[in-house]
Design goal:
The protein is an alpha/beta fold and 401 residues long. Helix content is 47%, strand content 10%. A seven-stranded mixed sheet has the order 1-6-5-7-4-8-9, with helices on both faces.
Length: 401
Amino acid sequence: MVLSEIECGPEAEATAVISDSRRQAVAREGTRGAALTCDSHATVASTSSGGDDCAGSHLVSAAFPVPADSLVEWLDPSAPDYPLVAIIGPTASGKSALAIGLALAFGGEVINFDSVQVYRGFDIGSGKLGVGERQGVPHHLLDVAEAEGRFTAGDYRREALKVLEDLRCRRKLPVMTGGTGLYLRALLLGLFEGPTRSDELRRRLSGLAERRGRKFLHRMLVRKDPETAARIHPRDTQKVIRALEVCLVERRRLSDLLRESRKGVQGFRPLKIGLSPPRAELAQRINARAEQMFAGGITKEVQDALKRGGTAQTPLEALGYRQARAYVEGNMTREEAIHETQVQTRQYAKRQMTWFRREAEVQWFDGFGDDPAIEQQVFRWLASAVSGQSHKVRRPVFSSL
């Protein structure tokens, strides 16, 4: 989730193939990684359910009988195009399940790019997988920030680059997954440093938002920089103010400055996998997930957070947590909180797809990441891509959300 807004016949056979592949995930690659020396090796923040190395299956699948070792053994830390897998798509589309499947099959480790999952103590509402659900695959950039602070896109880029270099040194395939497009874009394309913060100008813009409303401030940005305004939700006052600040101080559009000054990730070749599930099924999953969050204890998670750190905690403004807090404080009934979470999450999924459609060179798959048939398709495409064979990317005919 983004803070500002913030699965008889062939199917059974495919399921058996995936299950068998995961049962075979017992071969370790530690000897290969231990023999490697890399000057840029660094200790990085991560969470892992086991040892340093991720288990990799002997075969990607029975339907595609290529030894996983043969697909990753050629990875060269000094190569200028080391592969980096990024899985994108709307919330509840099965990205985490697919990431684990790919990591098991290709000897990889997972890197989170969800802006709520980086915070400690916020698990249920963010959809964070428990240690047991990670199937022995190390996960990075989970639980690396305190909720009282703000983990910015710049913070994310800095820490993610450390993780990438660590995985490269150990010949591991980075498998990135999450729903915060800004985090991923900050890593892959770089960030615009921008002018020095002007507290006086920010106070004036904040006052204007209080007097005239957040939508008025967003309309100002539409006039100054329509391209940037289209990427920022009218409710995200902080980002609107920053964009206006840049425009007013630099006397140029933020969108133009971004194109001129950003520096992308160096030494990696992004392989982007997009999930585009059917609209009706996605809505059902979103609705069910919201109900599960409230049944699974999100309200207690919010109560504990309020006792621990008060109301000024960044994740409390995220989808699900915002509604759970309203329920805890008596401003909503439980049913109202669940319903609003469902509605706003469906709207958020639509905004996510609008954002991700602008990503270049994405191979799209029309389904959920935990569907065995889709998993097989992704395995085949990725095996071809990482082994150096020619491959084409495809944009789907999107279901409207």
